Amino acid sequence: MNEINFIAQQAMYFSIPLLIVALGGMFSERSGVVNIALEGIMVMGAFIGVAFLNITGDSIPGQWQLILALLVAGLSGAIFSLLHAFASINMKADQTISGTALNMFAPAFAIFVARMVQNSQNVIFNGTKFYIEKIPVLGDIPVIGPMFFQKAYITTFLGFGILIVSSIVLYRTRFGLRLRACGEHPHAADSVGINVYKIRYAGVVISGALAGIGGLVFILPTSTQFSASVAGYGFLALAVLIFGQWKPKRILFAAFFFGIMKTLANSYTGISLLKNLPISSEVYKMIPYVATLIVLAFSSKNSQAPRASGIPYDKSSR
Amino acid sequence: MRTKLSKMLGNSAVASFSSSILAIVVGLIFGLLILLFSNPSQAFQGFGTILLGGLQDGLAGMGNVIYFAVPIIMTGLSVGFAFKTGLFNIGASGQFTVGTFVAIYIGVNWTWLPGYSHWIVALFAAALAGALWGFVPGILKAVANVNEVISSIIMNYIGMYLTNMLIVKTVFDQLKNQTLPVAASAQIPKWGIDKIFPYRSVNGAILIVIFVVFIMYIVINKTTFGFELKACGKNPNASKYAGINAKKNIVLSMVIAGAISGLGGALFYLSGAGKYMQVQDIIAIEGFNGIPVALLGLSNPIGILFAGLFIGYITVGGFNLQSFDFAPQVIDIIIAAIIYFSAFALVFKNLLGRVGKKLAKREDEKDE
């Protein structure tokens, strides 16, 4: 039982950032803009968020500081993503190109600024103080208490919150309907008076905000310093998004599928059953990726990518 | 009479080229602004160092430029080749990594090969390994409709972990935490290049790169196969209607792209420059750096050759920049800015085209 709790707690650290960032990517792609820049935006959000934690130090009490840092990270991600929105919506640029540019810019910018300010590219922060040993009341619930409400960060609940809000926004609001219309058939949407450009801007900016938050959420439990990298999680989130077929529920499944696999791979030494098998650690590390690839091979036949995703909208073309 | 100028402005190749140049200029200005903002007193000196690039140390410096350009030109060619078929090969890193490993493995172990063939076998095997790594996303896309972006990303990770495992099992130097040195016969011959550019890491690899550029140019522009690849990229439905086997072309395109990346890994690590693979969980950066090279080179083999040399050139400038109070990452910022502005090519091209048309119209009216 302890081991299952351990896996559940560890899996959150990997799954939640993937979930948040992939949901972000969903908003962008369903509005019709491919956002390959998720990686770069995560780096930017994590960098500014961590810098915020570093600068404010102990001046803001407890969880409030984390909440503010998450807001800062989200805001910087949103602002950074405006560059992608401008290029791909106004300038009708190839979305891969501007995404690549953002991916290159963010780590270079983070290292450059960190080195100019403090002579080292590593920004140190104290994330352990946000660690919650046990949440009162909820942590005492048998079975799910230890799995979800012990040894956690508030970011776990933020992730689930974002998931619920995202599904409601996408399927139950006027904005969500318009967003989906712009990603499927922008000309039809335009003909009934929807401003395609505006909706697409909204989609990209939401993805930027979520990717920025996701960047900080990823760094928080896994490290004590930030050195301009989120270890390819932005690209993995892209994989989760496609694996999850651009739908919130399936993205949740995909994120946890990958997250649990990743947990088993990373901490198999803590699991007695796996530890005794004569398999090298590198094989374990490969398993999540191989498994994802196999699942994809069987589930991609009827891929449901938004039809207009990646195509710049031009009013004058038919 | 239409003048040369109006004709030139209407020409799309000229427009593409000039939009790339414009992006470079704007990107460099952006870099200057960053320098001015962070350290105004040294900004112009620093900027001069960037512009001087590899030339600061004369021909030796240019040798350094070539050394850095070789791998990114190869991964750039790889990405560019796949772009021609409408595929985004973000997996150049994984292909590069497995190619590198195979080249080193053969370089260290297969010393029984006759000297003159050792390095050639290593290069071919590296290309083969890279091809295999490109084949997987290709076949998955063709048969099971798996998005090539995500399968290539995944193949990057699998390649990295597999290589790490195999290095430790086969060619590992425990003390130095890196691969064993390859035999001298596995190193690419110098062919006198080191006489022109007196820099110890420079060798015949650049000639092989130029050869690959030439072959790729011929394949894309002068063969039926190249035409089919481009047709699939431009309009999959039309090419299907015309009887082109799109699935076969997708697989072949990824296989060739993978082979080029794998070969790039071998060319970089068999250079005798004291470069070793290390066991670490980091995806090879050379693969990702191929993407901007391909984009800047407009997926044209010759364009990619020059784009790679250009990026190598300012990267060396970035190293020299460290003699001032600047972090060399300003180069990556400049490259990112250049890529970003090159994305505006369409707008710029339309603008040029419109100016060209106006000029032509005015000239036509004059004739009447």
Any overview of this molecule?
The complex is a heterodimer of chains A (318) and B (368). Chain A has 318 residues and is mainly α. Chain A has a single domain, classed as ABC transporter involved in vitamin B12 uptake, BtuC, CATH 1.10.3470. Chain A is 70% helix and 3% strand. Chain A has helices at residues 2-31, 38-56, 62-90, 95-118, 144-148, 154-172, 174-184, 186-191, 196-222, 233-243, 248-266, 272-275, 281-299, and strands at residues 123-124, 132-134, 150-152, 225-226. Chain A is globular. The mean pLDDT of chain A is 88. Chain B has a single domain (59-325), classed as ABC transporter involved in vitamin B12 uptake, BtuC, CATH 1.10.3470. Chain B has 16 helices and 2 strands. The radius of gyration of chain B is 22 Å and the shape is globular. The model of chain B has no long low-confidence stretch (mean pLDDT 86). The chains are: A mainly alpha (318), B mainly alpha (368). At the A-B interface, helix 4, helix 10 and helix 13 of A face helix 6, helix 7, helix 13, helix 15 and helix 16 of B.
Question: Which helices and strands, and how do they pair?
Answer:
The complex is a heterodimer of chains A (318) and B (368).
Chain A: H1 2-31, H2 38-56, H3 62-90, H4 95-118, E1 123-124, E2 132-134, H5 144-148, E3 150-152, H6 154-172, H7 174-184, H8 186-191, H9 196-222, E4 225-226, H10 233-243, H11 248-266, H12 272-275, H13 281-299
Antiparallel strand pairs in A: 1-4, 2-3
Helix pairs in contact in A: 1-6, 1-7, 1-9, 1-10, 1-11, 2-3, 2-4, 2-9, 2-10, 3-4, 3-9, 6-7, 7-9, 10-11, 11-13
Chain B: H1 4-10, H2 12-38, H3 43-52, H4 58-84, H5 92-109, H6 115-144, H7 148-170, E1 172-173, E2 178-179, H8 193-196, H9 205-222, H10 224-234, H11 236-241, H12 246-269, H13 285-296, H14 301-320, H15 330-342, H16 345-367
Antiparallel strand pairs in B: 1-2
Helix pairs in contact in B: 1-16, 2-3, 2-15, 2-16, 3-14, 4-9, 4-12, 4-13, 4-14, 5-6, 5-7, 5-12, 5-13, 6-7, 6-12, 9-10, 9-12, 9-14, 10-12, 13-14, 14-15
